[in-house]
Design goal:
Radius of gyration: 14 Å
Low-confidence stretches: none
Mean pLDDT: 97
Helix content: 25-40%
Largest sheet: 4 strands, parallel
CATH topology: Rossmann fold
Strand order of the largest sheet: 2-1-3-4
Number of domains: 1
Order of helices and strands: EHEHEHEH
Bound molecules: 4-nitrophenyl phosphate
CATH architecture: 3-Layer(aba) Sandwich
Distance between the termini: 8 Å
Number of helices: 4
Number of strands: 4
Length: about 160
């Protein structure tokens, strides 16, 4: 069963949204039991906290529930088949971990079919539009990631 881990800095905004949207697309395709899906942060400052209320509220308005609690990435994540990061700093922080196989680390927006962006911008210090932009990017990119995995018969 493919084990997909979404990673950002704090694990309270972007990666919980990516986890929830990927799960949403997986459920829509009836593949609920085909994946192990989780998220984590490169930092541990928010460990144990629910996702940011602004992120949860923006997703809920679109019918997607974000229910994860933050945790820091750890060597117990070494069994992840794919670690999907939100930005270049996450990519460096994750590939610097001694137990991470670099070929398993990908940036989420590599899978986005349209945007010129390479990073999902951190919305933490911004307003409502920043959270909506994250959800637009994450929705399309996680759907495309699932297409990618299905096309390669990895699920
Ligand atoms: P995230 O956003 O990496 O998308 O979860 C952030 C959340 C918290 C902080 C930074 C980014 N922080 O500095 O506490």
């Amino acid at each position: 069963m493919p084990n997909i881990l979404f990673v950002c800095l704090g694990n309270i905004c972007r990666s919980p949204a990516a986890e929830a949207y990927f799960r949403h697309h997986v459920q829509e395709r009836g593949l609920d039991h085909a994946f192990c899906i989780d998220s984590a942060g490169t930092g541990g400052w928010h460990a144990g906290e629910p996702a940011d209320a602004r992120m949860r509220s923006a997703a809920q308005q679109r019918g997607v529930e974000i229910s994860s609690h933050a945790r820091q990435i750890a060597s117990s994540d070494a069994d992840a088949d794919l670690i999907v990061v939100m930005d270049k700093a996450n990519h460096k922080d994750v590939t610097d971990l001694p137990w991470v196989e670099p070929s398993r680390v990908r940036c989420l927006l590599e899978f986005h079919p349209e945007t010129a962006r390479t990073e999902v911008p951190d919305p933490y210090y911004d307003g409502t539009e920043a959270f909506d932009l994250v959800l637009d990017l994450v929705d399309t990119a996680t759907c495309a990631l699932l297409d990618y995995l299905q096309e390669r018969e990895l699920v």
